[in-house]
Specification:
The protein is of the alpha/beta class. Helix content is about 25%, strand content about 25%. It has four helices and seven strands; from the N terminus they run βαβαββααβββ. Helix 1 packs across helix 2. Bound molecules: adenosine-5'-diphosphate and magnesium ion. The site of adenosine-5'-diphosphate (ADP) has 17 residues, from helix 1 and helix 2.
Length: about 140
Amino acid sequence: MIKETYSPQETYELGEALGRQARPGDVYCLDGDLGVGKTVFTQGFAAGLGIEEPVNSPTFTIVQQYEDGRLPFYHFDVYRIGDVGEMDEIGYEECFYGQGVSLIEWAGLIREILPETAIQVTIEKDLEKGFDYRKIIVESDLPV
Ligand code: ADP
Ligand code: MG
């Protein structure tokens, strides 16, 4: 699926729609340059899961867990990860293979441990189409 958005609100709403549909064990991988809208998408996604707490990028921790939604939600931002071994220390397997929903900003940095069933979301800019334009590609082997 490819969705083009022209405002943060539209990106938020796409995240929200996918968050509403998310199922236990889903792993969402987000990639795209700094400032492209991964966290905006994530905030919508969390809202779609019924999370009311504010969701920001976990700056000092790699993962932030939210329990107040329809399903447990694990928001990873692995931008500052040194090596994949840090994911073991965090106990990522319980997140990826449990009954909650995981979403990973900068997932490309931990490619080797991503489940094959993960849903890939890639966000791109195209300045020729305007400063607020984003192309959002959602790829899944499962029906989304
Ligand atoms: P990332 O998490 O990818 O580093 P953020 O979500 O934190 O990026 O920031 C995205 C920035 O881009 C925000 O300031 C947001 O307002 C802006 N923006 C402009 N247009 C869009 C759009 N179409 N979708 C998402 N964000 C947008
Ligand atoms: Mg971010």
